[in-house]
Amino acid sequence: MGSPTKVAVIGAGYFARFHYEAWSRMADVELVGLCEKDAQKGAEVAAAYGVSGSYGDLDVLLSQARPDLVDIVVPPSAHLEVIARLVEEDLAISCQKPFCGGLEGARKAVALARNRGRVLAVHENFRFQPWYREIKRLLDDGLLGDVYQVSFRLRPGDGQGPEAYLDRQPYFQRMKRFLIHETAIHLIDCFRFLLGEPSGLFARLAQLNPAIAGEDAGFIVFEFGDRVRGLFDGNRLADHIAENRRRTMGDLSIEGAKASLRLDGDGRIWLRSFGSNREQEHGYAWDDRGFAGDCVYACHRHLLNHLREGTPLETAAEHYLINQAIEEAVYRSHEEGRWIKAREWQSIR
Prior knowledge:
It is globular and about 65 Å long. By secondary structure, the chain is α/β, with parallel strands linked by helices. It folds into two domains: 141 residues, Rossmann fold; 159 residues, Dihydrodipicolinate Reductase, domain 2, CATH 3.30.360.10. Strand 1, helix 1 and strand 2 form a beta-alpha-beta unit. The chain has ten helices and 15 strands.
């Protein structure tokens, strides 16, 4: 197997704990350090996940821990500055989203990494949720036949009232761009993963909770080529049927010439043949651990396999710029009240 990959993590907030937990389970990874300004929090996280050292200064971490890979799990406003420092070292970089706070910063980060020949990946984990990997396999096998349309109803039910999001991610309330920038971009990426590149879109967005700064509901209509349609229908105030409403965060349906597919809130996949009134559950294996079917682990593993074995990388930051350009097109469509064709976001990428 060779020597372990030395991983360091920057950040120790709410979602960073999923990152540490996933890295700690990999036999070919050594967690050599973390960077966190709050010394007590850093020490607690290091002890909890077997991290060799906690550092309050990034330069000290880099010189003493000497990581092969640095995982950035800090607020987006800090991404570009951290990446600018990391590309000076001979290491790979993974960064959480919203990547660099938006397209402008992301472009700069990609250019920095490209100029120094560094691997820069975005931790976009939704496409690694096991149900999406299985649905992609079923589509590739032609089980549904020609696909007509896909729709996703985002319904986490965590956005009501003045206390919305405060118990877990309080900064959500202050985001001027919220539903699309923070959440729907996951589904934009999943739609691209499942169906390929969209050829156009139209969006209408709304703010339902006056306690927050940004939009929390909206529709995006997509076209994929000439025949396939997609709908993202998001509302963070409404909920859906699920044992854990953050597992899938909603319901997905895909309709095709041979069969229709439905993903429910518990991660179960249901299939119904065309002309039949009977829906059958499609069994597949997945682990109910970590976040959303252990997708943080799967996303980490995917990057690690690329670094250690040279396998293709789905999460390259340069490729992720397309998601961010589509995000900009969504906001433009809403503001201007018009259909946006792909050539427009391709030109701003």
